[in-house]
Inverse folding.
């Protein structure tokens, strides 16, 4: 055990040098060429064949590097950044990074237009140009987000929007437990989320306000793909109880086939976000849980106007943040 | 040339350890030796050979040092360590058990390979 540990330690400290590996591979290729020349091939043909046989040098180098115990440590920093982007378990502000906060209001169509163009998918929302994404932006998270602590305050005091609604940032794996079990992606949004986007379920209904409350009934809306793929498009799915992560949830609606979350995540099961105002003032170092918030601009309000009207709200929240996280 | 067959990862480790048990050798030599001994059935591509050598070295079963090849070129030689020798014995025993058991299931254990 100790011996193994020492071997690991030795290789953690003494990493193989890149040039050493290159020398080793070069020797291999030279031998291969020599063998082919001895078999009667001319030098350039032998070289060509040897290189083809050898295959990708860079991939071989990577694979050798990946054999080193602890090779992944150097990739952890990169992973940490991805973890931040997803807001998995780490609350952004408990991590002492030098970060800059700013108010962000982005037109959803603009925010996601790159992705749309690549995928050739128009956002299927009614009057999509009036829908914006609103919240903080952060040097490590360029897409707007809002912390639960501020949501109600913004909701109550904002001027420029007809409506605001949030979805959770945490698409997480969840298990559908039944005869034909499946691992799915679960997420949550508020009862006001679908109406904001002008979307209605094609079967069943949206969440009711009383379902979008702490300790409300366990109800879900499922994706079209899950409905069609897993339940063969059975119309009797509505009001059926399905077992998710070990407890029953009642299916109340099925999303339209072309429905796409603005974050382009492919969630199969959506729960009500059921924000608890009191919890949002205490959880996660008193910031509450991060969320993605969207809003529909009032008629005649432009994005710069909305920005100006939201600025005082943003400024008054800044006192909650550590000084190094502010602009 | 006979068609080459895919090797399971553990099998390749076993073949490398066995080859190095005879004498220290460079990577190219290991691949050639396995190919010869298997009458060209087993051809070890570099894409599996070098990662395997590195893996075995990190496990402490083989050790490498730079030396001169037969044709006086700088080459890296791998040599079995005492821990590697023990591992080879353990893997040989596992292999015997496995091949015997698979042979039993396939009803071929009595056959002598030609």
């Amino acid at each position: 055990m100790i011996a193994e540990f020492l071997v690991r330690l030795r290789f953690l400290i003494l990493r193989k040098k890149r040039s050493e590996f290159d020398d080793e591979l070069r020797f291999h290729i030279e031998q291969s060429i020599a063998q082919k020349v001895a078999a009667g091939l001319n030098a350039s043909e032998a070289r060509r064949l040897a290189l083809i046989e050898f295959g990708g040098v860079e991939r071989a180098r990577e694979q050798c590097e990946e054999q080193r115990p602890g090779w992944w440590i150097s990739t952890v920093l990169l992973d940490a950044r991805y973890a931040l982007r997803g807001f998995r378990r780490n609350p952004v502000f408990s991590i002492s990074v030098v970060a800059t906060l700013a108010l962000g209001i982005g037109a959803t169509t603009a925010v996601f237009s790159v992705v749309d163009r690549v995928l050739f998918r128009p956002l299927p929302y009614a009057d999509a140009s009036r829908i914006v994404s609103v919240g903080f932006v952060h040097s490590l998270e360029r897409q707007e987000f809002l912390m639960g602590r501020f949501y109600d305050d913004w909701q109550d005091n904002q001027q420029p929007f007809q409506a605001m609604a949030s979805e959770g940032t945490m698409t997480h794996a969840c298990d559908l437990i039944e005869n034909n079990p499946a691992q799915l992606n679960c997420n949550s949004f508020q009862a006001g989320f679908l109406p904001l986007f002008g979307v209605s379920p094609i079967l069943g209904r949206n969440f009711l306000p009383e379902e979008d409350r702490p300790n409300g009934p366990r109800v879900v809306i499922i994706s079209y793909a899950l409905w069609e793929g897993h339940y063969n498009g059975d119309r009797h799915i509505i009001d059926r109880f399905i077992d998710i992560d070990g407890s029953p949830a009642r299916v109340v609606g099925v999303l339209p086939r072309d429905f796409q979350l603005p974050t382009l995540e492919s969630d199969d099961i959506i729960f009500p976000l059921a924000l608890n105002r009191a919890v949002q003032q205490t959880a996660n170092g008193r910031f509450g849980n991060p969320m993605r918030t969207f809003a529909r601009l009032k008629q005649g309000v432009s994005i710069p106007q909305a920005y100006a009207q939201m600025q005082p709200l943003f400024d008054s929240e800044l006192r909650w943040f550590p000084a190094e996280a502010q602009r | 040339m006979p068609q080459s067959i895919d090797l399971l990862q553990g099998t390749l480790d076993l073949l490398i350890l066995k080859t190095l048990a005879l004498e220290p050798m460079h990577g190219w030599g290991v691949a050639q030796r396995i190919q010869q001994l298997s009458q060209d059935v087993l051809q070890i591509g570099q894409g599996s050979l070098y990662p395997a050598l590195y893996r075995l070295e990190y496990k402490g079963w083989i050790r490498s040092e730079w030396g001169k090849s037969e044709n006086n070129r700088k080459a890296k030689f791998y040599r079995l360590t005492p821990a590697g020798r023990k591992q080879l014995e353990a893997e040989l025993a596992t292999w015997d058990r496995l091949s015997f058991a698979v042979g039993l299931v396939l009803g071929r254990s009595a056959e002598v390979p030609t």
Observations:
- The CA atoms of residues 153 and 249 of chain A lie 31 Å apart.
- Confidence is low (pLDDT under 50) at residues 8-15, 86-99, 110-122 of chain A.
- The two ends of chain A are 50 Å apart (CA to CA).
